[in-house]
Amino acid sequence: MRLPGADAAANTFEHFVHHEDVRRAGASWTVRELAEADQRNLWQHLTRRVRMYVRRSPVPVRLVAPDFGAISVGNTDEASAITLTGPPAELVLYLHGRREQAEVDVEGTDESVGRWRKHYLSV
Fold this sequence. Notes:
Elements: H1 6-23, H2 36-53, E1 61-65, E2 69-73, E3 82-85, H3 88-95, E4 105-107, H4 110-118
Parallel strand pairs: 1-3
Antiparallel strand pairs: 1-2, 3-4
Helix pairs in contact: 2-3
């Protein structure tokens, strides 16, 4: 990883997600408060990669990270769209398949949310 920025791009999520896997393995875990700079870093990486994470989604997806921004994949004006809302760190975990451990709100029609929840996330 000699190219400038390649190491950070490849490992930011990897290290974060696996660290949180260890932290959240027990029954009494709590969401960790990250510094705003860390949340912003995760959000910047997520906005560059979100299309890869939801490329096979059966519904359009909008990610909303309050105080950081929003990004849409697909036509989120459609009635079938869903919205995932949470801090950047929680959205990263959710999109890495840690749905049960991530504190993310999922909003949409019952049908859309059902289709989304049946959808297997693959990175």
